[in-house]
Amino acid sequence: MDGEPMYIQMVTALVLQLIQCVVHLPSSEKDSNSEEDSNKKVDQDVVITNSYETAMRTAQNFLSIFLKKCGSKQGEEDYRPLFENFVQDLLSTVNKPEWPAAELLLSLLGRLLVHQFSNKSTEMALRVASLDYLGTVAARLRKDAVTSKMDQGSIERILKQVSGGEDEIQQLQKALLDYLDENTETDPSLVFSRKFYIAQWFRDTTLETEKAMKSQKDEESSEGTHHAKEIETTGQIMHRAENRKKFLRSIIKTTPSQFSTLKMNSDTVDYDDACLIVRYLASMRPFAQSFDIYLTQILRVLGENAIAVRTKAMKCLSEVVAVDPSILARLDMQRGVHGRLMDNSTSVREAAVELLGRFVLCRPQLAEQYYDMLIERILDTGISVRKRVIKILRDICIEQPTFPKITEMCVKMIRRVNDEEGIKKLVNETFQKLWFTPTPHSDKEAMTRKILNITDVVAACRDTGYDWFEQLLQNLLKSEEDSSYKPVKKACTQLVDNLVEHILKYEESLADSDNKGVNSGRLVACITTLFLFSKIRPQLMVKHAMTMQPYLTTKCSTQNDFMVICNVAKILELVVPLMEHPSETFLATIEEDLMKLIIKYGMTVVQHCVSCLGAVVNKVTQNFKFVWACFNRYYGAISKLKSQHQEDPNNTSLLTNKPALLRSLFTVGALCRHFDFDLEDFKGNSKVNIKDKVLELLMYFTKHSDEEVQTKAIIGLGFAFIQHPSLMFEQEVKNLYNNILSDKNSSVNLKIQVLKNLQTYLQEEDTRMQQADRDWKKVAKQEDLKEMGDVSSGMSSSIMQLYLKQVLEAFFHTQSSVRHFALNVIALTLNQGLIHPVQCVPYLIAMGTDPEPAMRNKADQQLVEIDKKYAGFIHMKAVAGMKMSYQVQQAINTCLKDPVRGFRQDESSSALCSHLYSMIRGNRQHRRAFLISLLNLFDDTAKTEVTMLLYIADNLACFPYQTQEEPLFIMHHIDITLSVSGSNLLQSFKESMVKDKKKERKSSPSKENESSESEEEVSRPRKSRKRVDSDSDSDSEGDINSVMKCLPENSAPLIEFANVSQGILLLLMLKQHLKNLCGFSDSKIQKYSPSESAKVYDKAINRKTGVHFHPKQTLDFLRSDMANSKITEEVKRSIVKQYLDFKLLMEHLDPDEEEEEGEVSASTNARNKAITSLLGGGSPKNNTAAETEDDESDGEDRGGGTSGVRRRRSQRISQRIT
User: Fold this and answer.
1) Where are the stretches annotated Disordered (predicted)?
2) How far apart are CA 716 and CA 661, in angstroms?
3) Rounded distance, CA 411 to CA 26, Å?
4) Is 1168 left (phi over 0), alpha (psi -120 to 50) or beta?
5) Which one, 607, 628, 938, 1105, has the greatest CB density within 10 A?
6) What is the radius of gyration, based on Cα positions, of the chain?
7) d(CA 584, CA 992)
8) E strand or H helix at 1199, and its extent?
9) How far apart are CA 544 and CA 992, in angstroms?
């Protein structure tokens, strides 16, 4: 054959040949007369059609048997690879002139595959395989459809080349047959191909005629050619069909040998044209038009329960989109893909994200449409999904640098820099490629784009902090420390130089324009970026320090101007000490500028300028007199104001001097933080102890009546303690801090300030330790074994031990800001290892239930860290943590009428302590111990308050259980607790009655009788128990009345009963809830045994949706505050009714084991009635969901006769609460 060589397996070639051989055409007999001829004509038509249909049946049988073998492996033979190759071969041979059967096989295969994967009873392996093959076929179909649009020109060219006839299709058919004829000599098998085509076209024409006759007024031309635009009448169709048949008959009659002598050689088409003709003719057949059907079927299974099917369907769509991205513009595709981005299986979500990624890159103009869906998934819980999203975003950034959302994308990606290792690595690589790869000097445009991109990202993160940038730079620079080629370092130098250049240009452009304050946001972003570089590599900025200094004199009018000054001060603080021989005037100018700023501006500026001055004076100029003068000025002002206040606290001049006092308190503190004034350099020979004097002054003002003054004094103290931590051990300081933290009435601002002071102290300590560590590394090589001066760590540890309890108690504050700073302090303390973590665990568990996600996550993160280092600590304190979380929720709960609930009241309704449970659930032993200790709180002896029990029951109802074992274990233990606690409860209630009965014995013997009878009944074996039929209302009414008469005068036991019974009611309710949520049947719960191997109950839970935990009785009990309200007759009656229901339930707690088939156990009925009555529900409904669950899980017992009875019974028993 001409064209490029194509290789297929022998077996495929054989199958195709065999199917093509099935077709027989009637032989041509010349000597027949005309009448017979017309009859024979009809017969021959039937022969041709039947012979083609036989070929179709043969193909169908072969395919269905072959496909069936592709299910699960049978023994050693695996047919799947064979089938895959077979499908690939069919796709290679389709539309090739010599293999007409390939198209037929694919067409049949498509139908078969759709049938296989849509049928839920097909085995899973076969369903997934069928989907996979169909995806391949659909993608190929789409590809052909896209390319055949381009074929039109070539077809017209061929038509011109082939002579004669009006009917184009006929001309093309003739050209193809000529081609086959001509090549028969080289390839004899083409005779069969030729016969197959003739039979196929003949049958198509026959079908077309039938169709036309059926629908007389066919609206559309059923011809399907691209040319026949006008609508044709049935007559025309019939006429044309007849002509075609005639043409085909004439061809059959001519033998190939005659044919070869007739034809003109110049007319024949070559191989490529023959392929084009085949493809063009095939485009009118059903297979070419079946793409829509396949796509719809694939989209349909996206909603299936089986994860494997959903994942595979998503991958199939991916293949199709890769061939033709415009498919994604279809509405049904958008809906399908969007739904799967929220799928609960990671693999499905990943497949959906991958599909979107392919599409967004091929069709940038549609990227915006899907952008929001994509970007959400960067916070996906599945690592593979997050990775996939980052890769797609990276490709967009690199390939479409002008995309409008680039900044946002970078921000989102960079925030994942502390994610797990794989993602961290990916983010580092992404930004190394985007930002930290040197740009050629000639490419100014790329450089400017890079700078704008970085500064945009920095500006966008203004509110969320820049830790990520520092982290990223550190990671990248660290990775190339030891290599000789340092591209990141080179890129950083380039970026810094260009940023400075950018700022200068920007200033010039501003100077030229009249509008001075325009867009100073860009300037702030540039300077902030420079600061971030200086923070990690201050050497980069050394040569630009002189350029930065003039910005200290910026006139401050807007927030942005202050940002510029603060950032420049921070840059100079890091850079000036590294300069070699800076000029005197430069240093003097800096000192003066800073001093002016300290005197003139607000807190933030003062803080940064004093810090900068500290670096310049302490490390470079040693100009101590200059600072001493400044200190004395403010110190003197405070002393003066103090003496005025001592003389007369109501002096009016104090009010006018308040701003001066506030500034002085703050500035003295700030100066003490950066300069140790007790050095001789400052105070000379004076014997005065400056730090004690400052402490005394500041302490005086912490007792001031004005809260603002107190706050500033505490800020000042905080600063001073950073230079002299030992002052925190002073008794008066301890009292001040602890009182503010533990006193319920002290102001929120003061609490926050004390916590902030501790936070700042710990942060400074951390920085100091890291610096000491770096210095030690430098000298460690020279010194043999130097004692590391780790005094400071011991100091901070002792300080934190002092204040730890009060800081932890601050978790129980109603204000979220107080909780926020307390959590920060604890996190820093734990990270530095200053205390034993176990004491914080319960508090962190409690903070994990905070309504604010940021705080929840931070607390959860701390727990994860602790769990990594010290396994078992979390489990050890889990129950204490749950109780504490209840206290936190109580503190936060603003609406005091409503009891605290244990789940989030949003659409997720997840348990507040779900993170704690998910940490413990992995270890079976720990999980069971935890669940049992929670259930033990419901015991009547535990005396837990009802509100807390409700909170714990809520959590137990909503925990993220994953296997059947977890809820079954809880239900099993609820049954045990019920039987013990329930009996105790009834006993104590009876005892309170019995005393009373003695008085009344004479008057009413029947009641005594009833009581003893019921006691006997409980003690008798169940077989001989005879139930008094309590179904009739009058009867139970009588019971209530008889018990009412026996009640003691004092209603305390009644209240006690109502209170204690809430625990048992909650357990009953919880059991019902779990049963409905997981669709368990009674028999399944009964058969469960905790000692069985874990594997039996390792199946995943199939959660029902819309099942909510609502213990109505307990909520009503709490809302009506029954425990403290007066007992009315009605309340008494309801408690007595509850007692009787309870008694009934206890009598029938265990379902009868043996019973006749078809009889509903009386005991079961009674028990269900009692439960329903107790829980205030309607009549029990049959829980049909339970049945299916049970059928699946208990298939193994179906053999036995009793199990069938039991299953039917469980079906009747099992019920749902309304």
Assistant:
1) 212-231, 994-1043, 1151-1218
2) 12
3) 75
4) alpha
5) 938
6) 43
7) 96
8) none
9) 90
Position 28 scores a pLDDT of 55
What are the tokens at 561?
A: 């101007």
Using one digit for the tens of pLDDT, what is the confidence trace for 943-977?
Answer: 778 888 888 998 888 888 888 888 888 888 888 88
Half-sphere exposure of 1000 (CA within 13 A, CB side): 18
Which single residue is written with the structure tokens 């890129």?
491
Give the mean model confidence (pLDDT) for residues 779-799. 63
For tokens 């540039």, the residue is 526
DSSP percent split of the chain into helix, strand, coil, nearest 5: 75, 0, 25
Q: Which residues contact 605 (CB under 8 A, 6 or more apart)?
A: 556, 562, 565, 566, 569, 597, 598
Rounded to an integer, the average pLDDT of 1030-1056 is: 63
Mean pLDDT to the nearest integer, 1032-1038: 47
Helix or strand run (H / E) with residue 576: none
Q: What is d(CA 279, CA 269) in angstroms, rounded to the nearest whole number?
A: 14
Q: Which residues pair with 963 in a beta bridge?
A: 1100
Distance CA 1044, CA 213 (A): 88
The whole-angstrom separation of Cα 370 and Cα 115 is 32
In 1079-1149, which residue ranges form alpha helices assigned H by DSSP? Answer: 1082-1087, 1112-1119, 1129-1147
CA–CA gap between residue 795 and residue 783 (Å, rounded) = 26
pTM: 0.68
Helical segments of 576-679, H only: 584-600, 603-616, 624-647, 652-656, 658-674
Residue 911's SS3 state is strand
* Cα–chain center distance at 57: 50
Closest to 746 measured CA to CA, from 833, 835, 818: 818
Q: Is 74 helix (H, G, I), strand (E, B) or coil?
A: strand
Q: What are phi and psi of 657, to 5 degrees?
A: -90, 5
What average pLDDT does range 577-606 have in this prediction? 86
* Nearest residue to 1031 via CA among 1209, 1211, 1170, 1135: 1170
**Least confident stretch, 404-413, 555-564, 574-583, 1172-1181:** 1172-1181
CB 453 within 8 A of CB 446: no
- CB 101, CB 16: distance < 8 Å: yes
**For residue 895, what are the CA distances in angstroms to 93, 121, 696, 957?**
74, 53, 44, 23
User: What is the distance between the alpha carbons of residues 379 and 1097, in angstroms, rounded to a whole number?
Assistant: 32
The enclosing H or E element of 1182 equals strand 1181-1182
User: Are 1090 and 1213 spatial neighbours (Cβ–Cβ below 8 Å)?
Assistant: no
Length of the chain: 1218
CB atoms within 10 A of CB 816: 13
In the Cβ-directed half-sphere of 165, how many Cα atoms lie within 13 Å? 17
The label of the residue with tokens 């050619």 reads 225
Burial of 680 (0-12, 13-18, 19+ CB in 10 A): exposed
Rounded Cα distance between 934 and 381, Å, is 29
Positive or negative CA dihedral for 69, 93, 110, 248? Answer: negative
Residue recorded with tokens 């309870």? 1142
Round to whole Å and give the CA distance between 1103 and 960: 10
pLDDT in tens, 332-391: 777 887 778 777 778 888 888 888 777 777 776 666 777 777 888 888 778 888 888 888
- Other C-beta atoms closer than 10 Å to the C-beta of 2 total 9
List pLDDT tens digits, range 313-339: 888 888 887 777 777 777 777 788 777
Element (H, E) at 1215: strand 1215-1216
What is the distance, to the nearest Å, from the Cα of residue 404 to the centroid of all Cα atoms in its chain?
Answer: 26
Percent of the chain with pLDDT over 90: 0
φ/ψ of 1100, rounded to 5, equals: -70, 155
**Residue 838 burial class via C-beta count within 10 angstroms: exposed 0-12, middle 13-18, buried 19 and up:** middle
Q: At what angle do helices 406-414 and 421-434 cross, to 10 degrees?
A: 140
Residue 623 neighbours by CB distance under 10 Å? 15
